[in-house]
């Protein structure tokens, strides 16, 4: 259903419309071939090291990005959820070294590992949103990206435990994200406030679509690294 530009939709309607638009893309992400290869133990150790390294770079960048957005919108009620996003990045970043070390990459090596452009596009786009976008752009985008990321990361967690022999602490980076699920009811008040102050619903939806497209590119990069 096309939105009437003269009458912005209510937040829950905006979320529903966005989900309808993004469902095919979300399906591509949660059924990605890299996940199947990992479950079949077809991903070699160097590719797991790359996965650890790219996540280190992405999460480290995410801390800087979200701190900027909290600073820009700290005068609005949305600072609460934006700060929650930021604090979550601090928590998950602490779990990366255990995974990296389990696959043969030391804590000291992580910052020195090369970044893959295709994997980092996700992070660089978030940088652009945090610098030039509004709070609601990222809130709506994170609502849907967190959903697919949690599904995928739990599949990674299960494969690492069952097929690669990692312990729970070693693989916890991928499990801890399930603590950060976002519900429509939680994000909708912040989206509604943005709509009422005149922020563009079309821009919010475009941001959500682009972030998921970059999420897909991340998994493509991992698959290419693994040769699957």
How would you portray this structure in words?
- The chain is mostly helical.
- The protein has helices spanning 11-30, 33-39, 45-72, 79-93, 96-102, 117-132, 135-162, 168-175, 184-196, 201-226.
- α1 (11-30) packs parallel to α7 (135-162) and α1 runs parallel beside α10.
- The model is unreliable at 1-6 (pLDDT under 50).
- What is the helix/strand order? HHHHHHHHHH
Look at the helices and sheets and give the structural class: mainly alpha
Task: Characterize the main sheet.
Answer: none
Give the radius of gyration.
Answer: 18 Å
CATH architecture label:
Up-down Bundle
**Topology, number of strands:** 0
* CATH homologous superfamily descriptor: Heme oxygenase-like
**Estimated share of beta-strand residues:** under 5%
Question: What descriptive keywords fit this protein?
Answer:
mainly alpha; disordered N terminus; single chain; Heme Oxygenase, Chain A; 228 residues; globular
Short note summarizing the structure:
With 228 residues, the chain is an all-alpha fold. It has helices spanning 11-30, 33-39, 45-72, 79-93, 96-102, 117-132, 135-162, 168-175, 184-196, 201-226.
